[in-house]
Design brief:
It holds the Pfam family Peptidase_M23. By secondary structure, this protein is of the alpha+beta class. It has two helices and ten strands; from the N terminus they run αββββββββββα.
C-alpha cells in the first residue's frame, strides 16, 4: 500500500491559502457586523438629537412664559401703585375742596319759624325792631353766621342793655358785625375766633323776650343803634331765610 506524500512547499501554500480564506471570511464578517452596527446606531443618534432640541425648545418656551408673567406682574404692581397714589392724592385734596366749597355765610339756626322781622313796629320795642327773630325752642344750637372774632359776650346784651339778655357780638372781615341775643348759654369768649357755622351758644328766653327765640342782628358797628336789615344782608351773601 502506497502513501501519498504532499510536497512541503505545496502544503505551506495550502495552509496559507486556507488561512487567507479564513481571514477573509472573518474580515468580511466583521465588516458586515460593523456595517450592521452603524446602520442601527444612526437612528438612535438622530432621535437623541431631536429630543435635546425639543427639550431646549420647551425650556425656551417656559422661560418666555415666565418672563411674560413677570412683566405682567410688574405692570400690575406699577398700576396698583399708581392707583394708590391717585387715591392718596384725591384723599388729601378732599378737605381742601370741602373747605373751598364751605359757605362763607350761613343761617344762625338750622330749624326755625320766622317771627318778628326787621324794622317792625310794636309795643315790644321802644323803637322799631332792630333785627330778625327766629322762633326756636330753648337750647337750640346757635351758629356764627360768618367767620369772625367775638367782641362782646355776656349778660345785659354784652353791654348793649338788659333788653337783649345774654348776647354775643361777632366782628367779621368785611367790617360788619352780627349779634345773637336772648341766649340761654354762651359758649365763646371775647377775642375768640369763630368759623361760619360754628356753634357759639344755645338759644333761650332771657331779657326782654315774649317767648323762646333768637334775636339776630347785622350791624355796621359793634353797638346798638347801627343795625341793618339782616334778611337782606344774608340774601346778598347767598343765604335765604
Amino acid at each position: 500500500m502506497s502513501k501519498r506524500v504532499m510536497n512541503p512547499a505545496a502544503r505551506v501554500t495550502a495552509v496559507a491559502l486556507a488561512a487567507t480564506g479564513l481571514g477573509a471570511t472573518m474580515v468580511a464578517g466583521a465588516g458586515s457586523a460593523f456595517a450592521a452596527e452603524g446602520k442601527a446606531a444612526a437612528p438612535a443618534a438622530v432621535t437623541a438629537s431631536a429630543a435635546v432640541a425639543a427639550q431646549a425648545d420647551a425650556q425656551a418656551q417656559v422661560a418666555a412664559q415666565v418672563k411674560a408673567a413677570a412683566a405682567q406682574a410688574k405692570a400690575a404692581q406699577v398700576k396698583a401703585a399708581q392707583i394708590k397714589a391717585a387715591a392718596v392724592k384725591a384723599k388729601a385734596a378732599t378737605p381742601a375742596k370741602k373747605a373751598a366749597k364751605k359757605a362763607a355765610w350761613v343761617k344762625p339756626v338750622s330749624s326755625y319759624t320766622l317771627s318778628a322781622s326787621y324794622n317792625q313796629g310794636g309795643a315790644m320795642w321802644a323803637h322799631k325792631h332792630s333785627g330778625q327773630d327766629f322762633a326756636v325752642p330753648v337750647g337750640t344750637p346757635v351758629k356764627a353766621a360768618g367767620f369772625g372774632t367775638v367782641v362782646k359776650a355776656g349778660p345785659y346784651g354784652g353791654g348793649d342793655g338788659p333788653a337783649y339778655g345774654n348776647a354775643i357780638v361777632v366782628k367779621h372781615a368785611n367790617g360788619t358785625y352780627s349779634q345773637y341775643a336772648h341766649l340761654s348759654k354762651i359758649k365763646v369768649r371775647i377775642g375768640q375766633k369763630v368759623a361760619a357755622g360754628q356753634q357759639i351758644a344755645l338759644s333761650g328766653n332771657t331779657g326782654n323776650s315774649s317767648g323762646p327765640h333768637l334775636h339776630f342782628e347785622i350791624r355796621t358797628t359793634p353797638n346798638y343803634g347801627s343795625a341793618v336789615n339782616p334778611a337782606a344782608f344774608l340774601r346778598a351773601h347767598g343765604v335765604t331765610i
